[in-house]
Structures are given as C-alpha cells and as structure tokens.
Amino acid sequence: MKTRYLQSVIEQDLKTKMVFLAGPRQVGKTTLAKMTAKGYSHPVYLNWDNPDHRQKIAKDGFLILSPRPSYRLKDLLVQVSQENLHEEIRSGDRTGREEW
User: Fold this and answer.
1) What is the b/e burial string over 17-46, where b = at least 16 CB atoms within 10 angstroms of the residue's CB?
2) What letter does residue 16 receive in the DSSP assignment?
3) Would you list the domain boundaries of the chain?
4) What is the pTM of this model?
5) In sequence order, which ranges of 1-100 are alpha helices (DSSP H)?
6) Which segment of 2-16, 42-56, 64-78 scores lowest on mean pLDDT?
C-alpha cells in the first residue's frame, strides 16, 4: 500500500498529541488511520459514527477540537502528483445543485 502524503505529518503530531481525522466520505481517512496505527504497539482507533466511540470522544458532553490550519490552494496543488492522484469517484446521483 502506498504512503499517503499526510502520513508523515500525522506521525509527527502523534508524538505529542491525539490526532482527529475528518473529511468527506471515501477519501481514505480510515485507510490512513489504520496504516498509521500499524506502526504503534497499542493504537486506539475510534470512529465518530460508532455511538460507543462517540461517548469516549465527547466525554462529559464536551468535544475539544484544535483549530484547523489554513491552506492556500496553490500550496496544496504543488503536492499533487501522478503517484497521489486518484481517479474520479462517483458517489451517486445529484441531490441538489451539484455539478458532475
């Protein structure tokens, strides 16, 4: 399995803090989390869609999130290469004013 471009950033962050992956469906969040977890002896994988996991994440009714970093599009585009470019994923029929 190929290394994802964010994997090294996540591994660096995991040295000092918990990492929370969020994003749209089917972009590889679970794959990235499980790939990264293989490098640790006691990883903990929690899924927000699982009610039991959600209780652990939002203990006592509080969910603490760090602010997201801001990115400029041109800085992100320079990271795109043939190795990490994915084919188009069709996620179903339009439900609103989306354009395919």
Assistant:
1) eeeeeeeeeeeeeeebbebbeeeeeeeeee
2) T
3) 7-77
4) 0.47
5) 7-13, 29-37, 51-57, 73-77
6) 64-78
